[in-house]
Amino acid sequence: MEVKVISEVSDLKGKYVFVRAPLNVPIEDGKVTNAFRINQCIPTLTYLCERGARVILCSHLGKDGSESIAPVFEVLQKQFVITLSPEVTGERTTQLRNFLNDGEVLLLENVRKDEREMKNDMGFAQELATLADIFVNDDFAASHREHASLSSICTLLPSYAGLSFAHELEELTKALNPQSPSLFILGGAKFETKIPLVEKFLSLYDTVFIGGAIANDILKAKGYEVGMSLVSDVDLRESPLATHSKILPLIDVVVVKDGVQRVAVIDDVRSDESILDVGPASIESLKPYIADAQTILWNGPLGNYEGGFKEQTLTCAKAIAESNAFSVVGGGDTVAAIEASHLSNSFGFLSTAGGAMLTFLEVGTLPALEALKKNL
């Protein structure tokens, strides 16, 4: 392992351990609707509490810091002796920290409520560091961000990877060295940010299948009508990605006009329609590659998952679950589809990360990972 892992520390009893955890989960009506990320950090928290550590738990929730982390507290208090601080740092947090007993947890309020977090402010990192003796990063999913509770704090405390972080690093590293036949499936949107990743994986993987909104960019580059579909600010007409032999061509797509949907072959999309999913024939053409693969890497839904276009993503998930391949899957909607289908145990590894997974796969590291390495 290229970083120190918290399991290497022999004496944790009575030590204050600051844990940055992946608690950025979906919440509706004040309740957590998917606890996948919370569950991933349970092994690290259990490990620390069983060894008598006094845990200071920290995470962001949402993008702008407006949400309270209280719903997450409700989930965690079913498994741990835990207290919720109404603030991130300050007098009340310090008091609650001093009240902690061995094996107990203090959950801080959403760290993004302090605007200094996203600025990677050293003064804020110092306030966080004064709460603890040791820092543990167990939030791989946020580690592509250079924020105070992920990066700067590493310069102030002995720092370690959590058990989930170390596992993410190990499994995603395997995906960079696939066994053939290998299959890379990429969905989602914003092709302009994913071009370097696709180019890299065309050299690493035997076959690539592209769905989601980014498939519209390839269809457009090939001269097909994409109508009102979401496309990126990128022109692929001169790019080899438009005609690369390793990229499986789409056969059909699901299109919508005025709320009415139909399946159209790719040369039958009309100018007033929007492509919102890959089609069933396209998934059927993918299935033999799934069945033959030794390694499958998948990130991103194949359609507008949040808009209800889930069918082909779910069909793809079922086919991978039934295969014998070692499969690595990431991206919130992709993992949600697998969990909704009760297929989690049929995959090799489900990552907590979306953007961080793509960044790691593209460049081989992350800002917060580099911060941990410097603490060696």
Which percent bin holds the helix content? 25-40%
CATH superfamily of the largest domain: Phosphoglycerate kinase, N-terminal domain
What's the domain count? 2
Topology order in helix (H) and strand (E) letters: EEEHEHEHEHEEHEHEHEEEHEHEHEHH
Can you tell me the residue ranges where pLDDT is under 50 for at least 5 consecutive residues? none
Q: Give a quick account of the main beta sheet: strands, pairing sense, barrel closure.
A: 6 strands, parallel
Kindly describe this structure:
The protein is α/β, with parallel strands linked by helices. The chain has 2 domains: 6-166, Phosphoglycerate kinase, N-terminal domain (Rossmann fold), CATH 3.40.50.1260; 176-358, Rossmann fold (3-Layer(aba) Sandwich), CATH 3.40.50. Helix content is 32%, strand content 17%. It contains 12 helices and 16 strands. Strands 5-6-4-1-7-8 form a 6-stranded parallel sheet. Helix 3 (91-99) links the parallel strand 5 (82-84) and strand 6. Helix 8 packs parallel to helix 9. The radius of gyration is 22 Å and the shape is elongated.
Quick structural overview:
Helix content is 32%, strand content 17%.
Indicate the topology.
Elements: E1 16-20, E2 27-28, E3 31-32, H1 36-50, E4 54-58, H2 70-76, E5 82-84, H3 91-99, E6 105-107, H4 122-129, E7 134-137, E8 159-161, H5 163-175, E9 182-186, H6 195-204, E10 207-210, H7 214-221, E11 252-257, E12 260-265, E13 274-278, H8 280-292, E14 295-299, H9 311-321, E15 326-330, H10 332-340, E16 349-350, H11 355-363, H12 367-374
Parallel strand pairs: 1-4, 1-7, 4-6, 5-6, 7-8, 9-10, 9-14, 14-15, 15-16
Antiparallel strand pairs: 2-3, 11-12, 11-13
Helix pairs in contact: 6-11, 8-9
